[in-house]
Amino acid sequence: MQSARTITALVRTAGVAAAVSGIIAAGLGSGVAGAQDEVVVVPPGPPVPVSSQEYSYLATHDLTVRANSIDLARFIADIPVPAQYRAANLALAARFDATVDEALTSPGGCVQVVVDPRAKDGNLFNYGFFPVEGQYCD
User: Fold this and answer.
1) Are 61 and 110 in contact (CB under 8 A)?
2) N or C: which terminus of the chain carries fewer CB neighbours within 10 A?
């Protein structure tokens, strides 16, 4: 069974894709999302619990720092995808960028990636990015 936090984040993430699609045409600005495209991310905490049907990956602190330093979110945003997936791809990049930034506010913080392969509405999968407090990261 998914936690309420996981479900909320997955629903919020799906909503971001729809919201960003109308705004992204203006350009990306600094980072991946422009200032008007603020992505709300929960503060760092313990890793979110996942069901036996989901996959969870907890990045190390070093990998989280590296993802930030090489601007992995920009790489995600620049991946060529069919037009119908562009808004979702940009939303994924913006969510990842904001989550990395939030995770790094906690000393030793890292990012948890949760993938739910039981997607609905024609998506390939549902995903969630969560900032994790440093005490839980390697």
Assistant:
1) yes
2) N
Q: Which residues fall within 8 angstroms of residue 78, CB to CB, at 6 or more apart?
A: none
Q: How many angstroms separate the CA atoms of 68 and 74, rounded?
A: 10
* Count, residues in the chain: 138
User: What is the pTM (predicted TM-score) of this model?
Assistant: 0.69
